[in-house]
Amino acid sequence: MQELPLNESPLLGESHPRGGRSRARPVASWREHHGWSALASLRRLMSRPVGTLLTVAVMAIALALPLTFYLLLGNVQKMGEALGQNQTVSVFLQPTQGGSAAELTAKKLRDRAEVASVTVRTPQQGLDELARMQGFSGALHTLDSNPLPYVLEVLPRPDAGADAVERLVADMRGMQGVDQVQDGGAWRQRLEALLGVGRRAVLVLAALLVIAVLLVVGNTVRVDIAGRSEEIGVLMLVGASRAFVRRPYLYAGIWYGLFSGLLAVGFAVLVELALAEPVARLGQVYAGKLQVDVLPPWLLAAVPVAAAVLGWLGARLVSAWQLRKVA
User: Fold this and answer.
1) Residues in Cβ contact with 131 at an 8 Å cutoff, skipping those fewer than 6 apart
2) 242 Cβ partners below 8 Å, 6+ apart?
């Protein structure tokens, strides 16, 4: 049915910018009504600031929660890296292995794709390190010879997975001249497993809260349409199509989503600022290795847009269902 621009819309209590039937072309009339619907729906939301603010705040909290958990998960991963997620694996050679054998073994390890670097520590360096430790300096003077072996400090690549590092450790244990390999692989695997659970939890939480946003917008639009069912019936009797009637509600959903997305970004930024100081103090303890991770700018920019789309979708689904009941 043809959309008829009305002189006054009972739905919003606003005057249409042009009276009577529009003499403009259909596309111009359609574009004009879109602009009017967007402004009229915004004015209506501003006319009830308390209710609008409460709805927007609830949606913003729902959107900010997955952002916050994503931020915390990223910082936990940074903390794991700083505290030793990719920690050095110590390879102790047999006491009979000399410097040339240690260098040859180190060269073989450097050629592996999962190895970032290999440092050779001589027995004298190990002895000097023990001498600097309290309680050992006196005992070392009684030794006739240096009993310490050559040690290779192998640093896996940051992008090497737990399985690759585990295979590397197993291969090093089977290398000729190797006496012992010390590796915190179990701790690394636990951390990676926990991070995997955390990522999945963030995805599930985000999906649930997206549904919550759809329900909040949908219920708000449903209540508004139900309270104006008689007015909507009159409009449809005089020739207004369902698309014409529901258009202001779709823009209302967009405004709800856009405002809640902007507020959710503000909440996420506040969380970042709240974490900055304690993480900075923690980073000082670990010689500056630990720094707070922040949400990427593209994600912060995408949240209001995605929220506006969710608001439109919630309003679209509920208004289509509700208008069928009214008609």
Assistant:
1) 137, 140
2) 236, 320, 323, 327
Query: CA-to-CA distance for 109 and 178, rounded, in angstroms?
Result: 12
CB 177 within 8 A of CB 93: yes
The residues pairing with 117 across neighbouring beta strands, listed in sequence order, are: 155
Residues forming a β-bridge with 91 = 152, 181
Domains in the chain and their CATH numbers?
Answer: 8-82+191-326 (no CATH), 88-183 (3.30.70.3040)
What three-state secondary structure class fits 156?
A: strand
Note the pLDDT tens digit of each residue in 210-266: 898 888 988 888 887 777 777 777 777 777 677 777 788 889 889 999 999 999 999
What span, in angstroms and rounded, lies between the C-alpha atoms of 115 and 276?
33
Cα-Cα-Cα-Cα dihedral sign, residues 249, 208, 53, 305? negative
Amino acid in the structure at residue 13 = G
What's the pLDDT tens digit per position in 268-325? 999 888 877 777 777 666 655 566 677 888 989 999 999 999 999 988 888 878 777 6
